[in-house]
């Protein structure tokens, strides 16, 4: 059916019927895809939530999501359920932003702690090679690839780990040049790049740890207050233990929230593709659904099987014995094998027509009253894109070309904030921030000789043997992982 619809639309024939048929068929593909995913991931989320202690904030969000699932299963008011999911989704995005900020903070302090570890134990085994020999090994590691993307990735890894012996003036010069690369890019891309630089530099993230949990907030304050030059071995070990605890906590939280967000996205798609909702949104689709009822009913078995699974899984969250229905759920999963890939393949094959309709048949879409559906297509495309936390907002300003003036304005703001950060932070933290920012910039070497000189000078200028041993050990581990 869809091949015929595609052919007719491309020829511009009987557009009222074929566009309507295309819309309901695509909505059906998206709906079944998300229903399959949700029926599998909702159960996985149950098993994850059942392990270990419970985060009260996460528990409350999960309970609200259960109510949405209940509403879907009982045929509740779709618009109200969408409104609830929209708010829920924004809350999860906000929490993930806080968790990501915590990850960046922990990365900075892990970087600092790694470089003082060999003050408290023997690291001489990592200092047996000369700087020239280590430089040669690193160059071989970087250049042992033909793919420039992979080579650039390795260069960034190495830059982040090498001892940072660079003046602030030179650092800011490289930062400015790195940002200028984006002058022909859209403002949205520049803003995304700046957001990444700001988070790796711990800018605008001071409150994030406390928002994640009181304990994580206290740990991060301990890190900030520690005098890294005067730590005793016992104090160092305590900080490392706190770092490990915080990292484990954040990792566990991220895993839960990512899966919750995926489930929210799939439930969102199920609601946006609901037949009754679409008929109310665009009455012209009611006729299309009526004319294609028999074919859609034939294809509905997968959807019905998934909703039956969701019903059983919902009961698990509300006290039904696991052993009692687990076997039924697992049998249901066997039936779903390959279904997700099937429906993904179908909507991916025909999704290009959505843009083509907007570009070539906009007046017809308006005449049919289908513009609200086209807006929902845009949301659905984002929800199934794999970018779990993608925002729906798409402001025109973000698509404007940045230009040099915009870049210089943003650079000036960033330079001021970084200067303030460097003035109030210890040297090891400043070096960590600079190293992380440099590793995120476009590669600033013009040729292999420049890479070689940078690596050698970084090693040769490092007179702190504990730091040097740690750096060599980290770089050796990276090279051995290949």
Q: If you had to describe this structure to a student in words, what would you say it looks like?
A:
- The protein is built from 24 helices and no strands.
- The protein is globular, with a radius of gyration of 27 Å.
- The chain starts with a helix and ends with a helix.
- Helix 2 runs antiparallel to helix 17.
- The chain has one domain.
- The model has no long low-confidence stretch (mean pLDDT 93).
- It is an all-alpha fold and 482 residues long.
Write down the overall geometry: globular
Number of domains: 1
Unreliable residue runs: none
Given the structure, what is the number of helices?
Answer: 24
The portion of residues assigned to helices is over 70%
Number of strands: 0
> CA-to-CA gap between the ends?
48 Å
Query: What is the chains' assembly state?
Result: single chain
For the largest beta-sheet, the strand count, sense and barrel status come to: none
List the secondary-structure elements in sequence, H or E: HHHHHHHHHHHHHHHHHHHHHHHH
Percent of residues in β-strands: under 5%
The averaged pLDDT comes out at 93
Radius of gyration, Cα only, in angstroms? 27 Å
Structural class: mainly alpha
